[in-house]
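Extended Data, panel c. Modelled sequence:
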Amino acid sequence: MSAVHWQAPGTPLRTSVIRASLLGLLLAIAGAWAMRAWLPLGAWYPAKVALVFAAMMTTAFGLIGRHHPYDRFGPANQVTMVRAMLMALIASFIGEPVVPPVAATATTVAAVIALLDGVDGWLARRSRMASAFGARFDVETDALFVMAMSFLVWQHGKAGAWVLLGGMRYIFVMAGWFLRWMTRPLTPTRRAKTISVCHMAAVCIALAPIVPAPLSAMVVATALSALSWSFAVDVRRLWRMP
């Protein structure tokens, strides 16, 4: 489906995406208010959640027309959207009170997001609706999740500012603005996926209140070292491409 068809009002894909996004936004806001019922969160927390989720879906709108050749959003993308919705709840903890209940809640929600990682890919294959958009949507949701969790690990004093290097996906993308060879298509590998999942698990473990600060830093440092090596391997692969 072309971008022109996507932009035309009333198209099945456009209607499907808008409906899913509005439902996701309402659920995200409801979840934010529920969080405020038992956590010491600021009055602006629900607005932060809504803005983060809306920003993610707005960005997705810019990609879907050219990279999603189906007439509906699909079950796989809906699962990824649920992960994005939960991620918005976590990301909005940034700037909120640094207390154990907030860290414990973020860890629990993060564990759900991590468990759902891979379900969207399975559904895409099962429904025969795999697309470049779905893969990119999944990757960017993972990247933002890791960046938000890394920031919370730092904010809660579980590791130093170096933990923010977990967001090296963004450094990788920005490097492509200046080095054209960095934008070459890169075939996904089991090695990269496995290390990425391990790093996601590491930031979840590190933020958990039951994990003391020295140990939390060691857990993240180990996973971050593996992630750095994995990115270095991918950069080398890109450099050596003809």
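The chain is about 70% helix and 0% strand. This feature is highlighted in the accompanying rendering.
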